[in-house]
Each structure stands twice: as C-alpha cells, then as structure tokens.
C-alpha cells in the first residue's frame, strides 16, 4: 500500500463522520496526546482515557471505512497487522459476551488523528482499546514510527461463534521455543536479577530504556537460535504495514549481533511474572505474563518499541 492510498483512506473515514464525530477524531499532535495509549479498557482510565471517536457511535458504513484505513496502515499477514486487530476486537466482544461487563467489546475502542493527515507535516494515527495500541506516526508522506505498539490477550485462547481463536499464540510460541533452545549455561547468563509484574516500558514509562543491555548476546547463539530471535522480532514488526516492516527488519537484522535476550521467572512463560526481553541498539521487545483478571490463568502483555523512533522521536 502506498502512502497516497493510506491518505485517501484516512480522508474517506474522516469524511464519513458527523460533525460531532470529527470533533472527537481530531486533536493536536503533541507528546502528551500521542502518549495517551494504554492496556486497560477505556472505562477504567477515567480522565487518563484515550482520545478519539468512540467506536460504539459508528454506523456499519463508518466501520467499513475505518477497517479500510486500518488495512492500509497495518500488515497484511494472516496472523499479523490488520488480521490480528480484527481478532483483538473479537476477543473483547467475547469478554463482553461472557459477562465481563459493558466496558468491554469493540465499541469501547477509539480512533484518533493527532494532527491533520496530509502530504506534508506530522500526524499520528492512534487506534486502540483493551489490550491493543496502534501508534503510527507519519511525516511528509511517510511512516516514521510504528511504535509504541502494544499487544495483549486475555484469555490467551477462546472459542467464539464456532471459531477457535489464539491471536497472540505465534508470538508466545516463538518466545517459548527460543528459551527452550538455550543450554543451562545460556539460561543462567540470560536470567535477570529483577522480577516483573508488568512491562518495564509500560504505558507512561516512555523513553525509560535501560542504559546497559543484559542477557545473552545474539552473536554468541547458534544459527538455529538466531533464527528464532529473528522470528520473534518479525512477529511484532509485521504488525506495521508491509513496506515499513521490511525496512524495520533490515535495520534490526543489521544490529542483530549487538542484540541481547534475557528473561525472568520461568522459561516456560506460563506463570504470572514470567518475562522475556529482546534488547538491541534500537530494538526493544518485551513480554510479561500478567496476573489473570477475566480468566483462570495468566495472559501475555507485550510491547514493541524503538529507542530512536518511538513517537517519531518526539519526547516530552
């Protein structure tokens, strides 16, 4: 998809809205606005809540226009990008259907434009809700940042309307396989002293990257292990549009030897507080198994960030 196509879909969506909805959609581009993403449902956040149009107000035609925009802005893989966003919306519909509360469901998600979509200048497409955050920053007709990008899922697996879903399963499976491939010596070297109940770079902890990486350096791994690291990175980067994902992967591949893998808790990633991190010169991906809220067992929270490109490089 070209930027011109994305821009057309952004304007199509905007033009499909009522005057009141457009007022909710459009906000100034500032760091304070750009950083108003979260992992929690909208109802829980109060005054800290997301900006944008409440998706419960959209007509069927407006939903179609929004989906066309999301498809243009995110990856086309069967388990990534747009397809995964749709499964996240279904997951929240499922939670609502089993009695989690009226604050769940796709209607509780929001979409915002920070700045004005155009061929020049900077603007951000913000889309998110419970366990999902898309923050795409564009400048002068190009995507300059697809991060912070958050994905979580509770329950990790569910059955809804005759279909079995496991939206974040391939990300989790790759991390488990990577740690399972480590020797006892590598596991000892990769283990972090700290314990984690949440992500280190959770919402509100922007630009707080550790100064020194910890763990096993990827340059010391076998080729099979390196390939698992590549796959783990690909699983998250492919949520960006296909062309941008290709560029990100090329950058992270060039930095792979200076990238580190570390973990805390158990390497099976099955218990609350189990944690894994990939930390490179610019790449940052981490996953933690969060305490259960709506299911019997823990569930994954994961974030992809970029030490140079988060929010297009904008800082507070």
Automatic annotation (TrEMBL):
Residues 303-316 have a biased composition (Basic and acidic residues). It comes from the Bacteria. Residues 296-316 are annotated as: Disordered. Pfam families: DUF3500. This is DUF3500 domain-containing protein. It comes from [Actinomadura] parvosata subsp. kistnae.
């Amino acid at each position: 998809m070209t930027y011109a196509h994305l821009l057309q879909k952004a304007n199509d969506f905007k033009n499909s809205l009522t005057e009141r909805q457009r007022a909710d959609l459009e906000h100034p581009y500032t760091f304070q606005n750009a950083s108003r993403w979260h992992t929690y449902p909208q109802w829980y956040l109060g005054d800290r809540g997301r900006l944008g149009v409440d998706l419960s107000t959209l007509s069927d035609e407006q939903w179609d226009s929004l989906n066309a925009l999301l498809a243009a802005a995110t990856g086309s893989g069967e388990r990534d990008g747009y397809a995964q966003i749709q499964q996240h919306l279904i997951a929240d519909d499922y939670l609502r259907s089993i009695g989690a509360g009226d604050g769940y469901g796709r209607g509780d998600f929001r979409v915002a434009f920070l700045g004005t979509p155009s061929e020049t200048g900077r603007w951000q497409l913000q889309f998110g809700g419970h366990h999902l955050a898309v923050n795409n920053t564009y400048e002068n007709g190009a995507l300059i940042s697809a991060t912070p990008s958050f994905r979580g899922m509770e329950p990790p697996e569910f059955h809804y309307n005759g279909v079995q879903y496991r939206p974040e399963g391939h990300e989790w499976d790759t991390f488990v396989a990577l740690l399972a491939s480590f020797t006892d010596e590598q596991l000892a070297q990769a283990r972090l002293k700290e314990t984690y109940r949440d992500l280190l770079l959770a919402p509100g902890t922007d630009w707080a990257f550790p100064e020194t990486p910890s763990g096993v350096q990827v340059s010391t791994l076998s080729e099979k292990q390196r390939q698992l690291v590549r796959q783990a990175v690909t699983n998250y980067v492919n949520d960006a549009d296909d062309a941008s994902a290709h560029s990100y992967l090329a950058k992270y591949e060039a930095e792979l030897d200076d990238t580190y893998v570390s973990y805390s808790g158990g390497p099976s990633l099955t218990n609350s507080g189990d944690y894994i991190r990939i930390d490179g010169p610019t790449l940052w991906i981490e996953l933690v198994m969060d305490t259960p809220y709506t299911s019997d067992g823990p569930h994954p929270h994961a974030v992809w960030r970029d030490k140079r490109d988060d929010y297009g490089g904008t800082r507070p």
